[in-house]
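W.,

You were right to be curious about this one. When I first looked at the sequence I had no strong expectations either way, so I just let the prediction run and decided to look at it fresh. Below is the sequence, 110 residues in total, followed by the output.
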Amino acid sequence: MYQFGNGLIKCLNCGGKYRGKQLRNHKAYTCSTYQKKGTLACSNFTIKEEEIAHIVSTHLKLKGVRVEGSLGEHVQVIEVRDRGYRIYYKDGTNSVVNDNSSPYGTKFKY
């Protein structure tokens, strides 16, 4: 089972949804448009589940939120653009994660 279920992660490059898949020894999410149509339709940016889980759990700990159950229950949506993403939480806050190649502009922001 994936913590950030299908449809929770949205690709702002093509409008598609990210879907969970098993890669070798870890779970990850990739754009469904890329999976179906290839590089002409969208870019291949894969996000490891453990990376998102670490960011979400760290952000929730900083806010003093005790997590019981799935981390995905606290997330409203994750928007992916280029090679970065923004996590919107149900409480109205957000986290930004990227490599400075997108308009979000920071490496990590909680």
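Here's what jumped out at me. The mean pLDDT is 84. And, maybe more interesting for your project: Strands lie at 9-11, 18-23, 26-31, 47-48, 75-81, 84-89, 94-97, 108-109.

Coffee later to discuss?

I.
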